[in-house]
From TrEMBL:
Highest taxon listed in the record's lineage: Eukaryota
SUPFAM superfamilies: Growth factor receptor domain
Keyword Membrane on entry: yes
Signal sequence, renumbered to the chain: 1-25
Name used for this protein in its record: Proprotein convertase subtilisin/kexin type 5-like isoform X1
InterPro entries according to UniProt: Growth_fac_rcpt_cys_sf (IPR009030)
Keywords: Membrane, Signal, Transmembrane, Transmembrane helix
Transmembrane domains' residue ranges: 598-625
Length: 655
């Protein structure tokens, strides 16, 4: 037993106390305790044979970092913490049934993460027993419980393999090493660089002609093989993951400088740039790509210097499809076609969606010079036209919207330097200065004292007989009328104007009504109803009418729409809208008034009775009038009786 300081003892005591507090699992002596997170229970401890790769083992527990007073070590297979002051087992302390001593315990086998040395379980072999033999696994390994440290390798495992941390005793050398006596070498010498069947050779034999770099946990060594692995290509019999720049093409998993005749085209796949399949030799290009015949390449778009014909990029079009169709908005920029498609323009053997800047449009063609039948160039400098537009002028052989400054005058729609002597008047327009003969054109006036025809006479002047004069009043018998060219003195209002007092106005005020051609406050009896004319929605006018238009009703001397009457819970009778039905009408539906039949019947009866009574009085009066006027009408003789009878008969005939 080694002596240790008080500090080590206290650290060990504190660590043991912590372990006892956190422990919730009783592990076997050959197991380690690992702290894991469970989403249902939180942090817990579990027992395992070894610690995770990124953790250290110390006193049968796993740590992410070594505790205080210890320092980290590793042997290539496990990581562990070392404390120089730890106890060690005395020799021959344990019995046969549990011969191995570990952490002051006697065990049947050492823990998997330890090796045995002189009946003790240790984390690393001492210098006097530096060779490790693993009986519980095959090859360079560290698993199982049966691992032993010895001074020399046993006969059953005579070969020595030296890893970074350990000397392994093996029954045979690994395939990735070269056998040198009992040594397993990780590298071959320069003069014999290739590994073949456990030996270093200067060249690979014919049965395994390819050289592949074998990557292992311990080394990288070129190995002779019969073929390159999947994803690898051969370059000068060396297996490579990417073809070199001087032989960039993959042909049957071989890197070549140029594709052969049976696979003449190169298909590039940018997503496979880091593999041998970046540029492959293929027999034909895929349907989604075009064939660039000259360069023997598969491309998504033909280069600008080529044209597309039958999915092939060619330098010039064949005679059967002679036209070069240059497209503007298409992935295909140039294509060989038999004839120019509709809505395109032809120039020599070229078809364009629109003519190039140096050419002009003429019918369905592009041309450098306009023909005699259409000699002028349009104002947008692109089209040959027979004549310039209505609002354009001729400037040389071109149509212009404005004359140039050196030819700013316009005569017969042409831009000229000066006006001729015969043209005494001028007018400024958008295109330039118009040369005119008297009088000034319609919709202009002659500005007095100048040679100018103006589109509008200034506000402080009047237009009298077509001349814009410096005057404030019109001659007798004329009055002012506002117009688009200014205030004009006229004898009568034009059809587009109204009379408002002694003024001629284009529209009456919003507080006035239009009665004929007059602006008035109220409508006359000849046209008593007001109707709002909304033909001009921005300027509605109230017009006096004799009858309301169809679809309108009279309401308080106004014409209102039928729906407006109904929506405001009013009633309709004949051509009028009322708050309630006028007598003797009654409401016969929700909105319409009609005569009451009961009232009509009673009225008829009353009229009939009155007529009968009047007739009776008339007869009685006639009878009394032709007889004697008295209270009693009795005949005094036979003659009188006869006369009375005759009177009665006459009266009956009359009735």
């Amino acid at each position: 037993m080694k002596s240790f300081s008080l500090f080590h003892f206290l650290a060990f005591f504190a660590l043991s106390f912590q372990n006892s507090q956190e422990s919730d699992a009783d592990c076997l002596p050959t197991e380690v305790m690992v702290r894991v997170f469970d989403e249902y229970h939180g942090w817990r401890h579990k027992c395992k044979n070894v610690c995770p790769e990124n953790q250290y083992v110390y006193r049968a527990r796993c740590y992410t970092t070594c505790p205080i007073s210890t320092f980290p070590q590793e042997n290539g297979f496990i990581k562990y913490c070392v404390n120089n002051g730890e106890f060690s087992c005395p020799e021959s302390i344990c019995r046969k049934e549990s011969p191995f001593c570990f952490n002051d315990l006697c065990l049947a086998t050492c823990p998997e993460y330890t090796v045995s040395y002189k009946k003790s379980c240790v984390l690393r072999c001492p210098p006097e027993g530096k060779y490790v033999t693993a009986y519980s696994c095959t090859g360079v390994c560290y698993s199982g419980n049966n691992k032993t440290c010895t001074q020399a390798c046993p006969e059953s495992h005579p070969f020595v393999f030296r890893s970074t941390y350990l000397n392994h005793c093996l029954d045979k050398c690994p395939l990735f090493t070269a056998v040198n006596g009992t040594r397993c070498n990780l590298n071959c010498p320069i003069e014999r660089p290739y590994l073949y069947k456990g030996k270093c050779v200067s060249a690979c034999p014919p049965e395994r002609p390819f050289v592949s770099l074998w990557n292992t946990l311990f080394n990288k060594i070129p190995v002779c093989t019969d073929r390159c692995h999947e994803g690898m290509g051969s370059f000068q019999n060396v297996c490579v993951p990417v073809c070199p720049s001087d032989s960039p093409y993959e042909y049957r998993r071989e890197c070549v400088r140029q594709c052969s005749e049976d696979r003449p085209y190169v298909k590039s796949t940018p997503s496979k740039r880091a593999t041998i399949y970046y540029q492959q030799c293929v027999k034909t290009c895929p349907k989604s790509e075009k064939t660039w015949e000259k360069a023997k390449q598969c491309v998504f778009e033909c280069p600008k210097t080529t044209l597309l014909f039958n999915k092939t990029c060619v330098s010039e079009c064949p005679s059967s499809f002679p036209f070069n169709y240059t497209k503007e908005n298409s992935e295909i920029k140039h294509e060989c076609v038999k004839i120019c498609p509709p809505h395109t323009y032809q120039y020599n053997y070229n078809c364009f969606d629109s003519c190039p800047a140096n050419l002009k449009y003429y019918l369905s063609n592009c041309t450098k010079e306009c023909p005699k039948v259409s000699p002028y160039i349009s104002s947008n400098n692109t089209t040959c036209v027979k004549s310039c537009g209505k609002h354009e002028v001729y400037s040389g052989n071109a149509c212009a919207k404005i004359c140039p400054e050196e030819h700013k005058y316009i005569a017969n729609k042409r831009c000229v330097k000066f006006c001729a002597d015969t043209h005494d008047l001028q007018q400024k327009i958008k295109q330039g200065i118009l040369c005119l003969k008297p009088p000034c054109p319609t919709n202009t006036s002659h500005l007095e004292g100048t040679n100018q025809c103006v589109e509008r006479c200034p506000q402080n002047m009047l237009i009298i007989n077509g001349i814009c004069k410096n005057s404030t009043s019109c001659p007798d018998g004329k009055y002012k009328e506002n117009s688009t060219i200014g205030v004009v003195c006229v004898g009568k209002c034009s059809s587009a104007f109204y009379v408002d007092g002694n003024r001629r106005v284009k529209k009456c005020s919003s507080k006035q009504v239009i009665d004929g051609r007059n602006c008035s406050v109220n409508c006359s009896s000849a046209k008593p109803y007001r109707f709002i004319n909304v033909t001009d929605y921005e300027n509605p006018m109230t017009v006096c009418v004799l009858y309301c238009p169809e679809g309108f009703l009279i309401f308080r001397n106004k014409c209102i729409e039928y729906d407006d009457c109904i929506n405001k819970l009013r009633v309709v009778y004949q051509d009028g809208c009322y708050d309630s039905c006028p007598p003797p009408t009654v409401l016969d539906s929700r909105t319409t008034c009609s005569y009451d039949t009961v009232v009509l019947y009673m009225t008829f009866e009353a009229v009939s009775f009155s007529l009968a009574f009047i007739l009776f009085l008339f007869i009685l009066f006639m009878c009394c009038y032709k007889g004697r006027l008295g209270c009693k009408c009795k005949p005094s003789s036979a003659k009188e009786l006869e006369d009375a009878a005759t009177l009665v008969d006459e009266s009956n005939e009359e009735i």
